Amino acid sequence: MSEKAELAAVMAYFGVSWPELNEGLTYHDIVRPTDAGLTLIEFYFRKYKNSAPLQGWLQRIQNKQITIDGKVAILPDTELRAGAELVYHRLPWREPDAPYLLEVLFEDDYLIVVNKPSGLQVLPGGLYQQRSVLTQLQWHACKPTTTSSGCQKTHPVPVHRLGRGTSGILLCAKTKLCKSRLAAYFAEGTSVVEDKCTNSECNTMRKICKIYRALVSGVMDMDEVVIKQPIGTIKYPGVAKGLYVASPSGKPALSSVRVLERDSENNCTLVQVEIQSGRPHQIRIHLSFIGYPLIGDPLYVSGGQPKCFHPELMDESFEKDGGYQRPENPVPGDCGYNLHAHQIGLIHPITNEHLFQLSFKHEKNAKRASQTPASMR
Q: What pLDDT sits at residue 240?
C-alpha cells in the first residue's frame, strides 16, 4: 500500500444505535392499461403474491394502509382504472437485532472502506429495511457537525455486497464517478471469468482483488485448488428470486483456494479464498461443492446444495401487518458460518494508485467487530 494510503488509514468507528421501530415503508404503483379493470385485491395479490397471502392483503386494506389517488381505499373489490396511483403504507416494525458500529479502515475524498461486522446487512431488504450499512453511511453523512447545511456533499454507498453473516472489508464510494469506476472493475473481472480464461490470465487482467478467509468442516487434503463450478438458481421457499446453488447450467464462477492451517483434532481447515467472480454466496457454494462446507453454515451442505430441497407448504398464516411469516427452512441471510473478507487490493479508481494489502491490522478490534474465530485474522 502506498505511503499516502498508509497515512489515510485510520482507526475510527461510527454508528448510531437502532431505534426500536423503523419508519415503515411506502410502495408506489401506477396502474398500467393491461391491469385496468382488475379489482384492488386482485392487483396486489397478483403482483405481490410473495409478500402476503390473499387474507393478508385483505387485512392491509381493512387497516386503511392502501390509497388510490390519495384517498384511502376501503373496498377490496374497487375496480381500478389505467393511470390510477396506488400507495401501500407498510406499518413500522421492530427489525431483528443487528450490530451498528462500523470501523473505518481507509478513507479519502473518494472512498471509505469499512469493516462490516457479522450480522449486519449491507443494503436494505426483507425484514432489514433500516438496519443496514447503507443506512449508517447515510446517517453518518448527515451529522449536523459535518457542514453548515447539515449533510456532506458526498453520499457514500456500498459498491459490492457481503452476506449478512460475512464480516470484513467493504468498499464504499463517496462520489458517482468513483462508484461507476469501481462497478466497472467488478464487471470486468466477472466478464474475464465468463470468457473462461486461465487463472493466471484472470489475475493479470483484473483491477481489483478480494481475498477471504473461511473456516471449513473437514481436513482438506490438497494444499491448493481452483473451483470452476458454475452457479445458478433453483426455486426455494422463502426466496422470491430463487436460491443460488451449484448448477451445471449456471453462470461461470471461479474461486482459488489455499490451505492456511489444518486442525485434525477439531476436524476443520482454515483456508484463504480469492474469488475471480462475484456470484452471490459463491464461496459458501464452492467450498461446499467440493465437500468442505463452512462451519456453522445453516444452508449449504456438500455438493453446493441446500439442506432442504422439498418445497414448504404455505399455511396462509401471516404477521400482524399481513405479510408472510418467516419460513422454517434456512434462508441465505441466516448467520452462523465463518467467513471473513480479509484483504483487498485495487487500483484506486480516481488517483490510479495501487492500494495493495488493505487489510485488518488491528487484531483486538477486528476480533470484537467480526464474531469470527481469532485464527481467521
A: 79
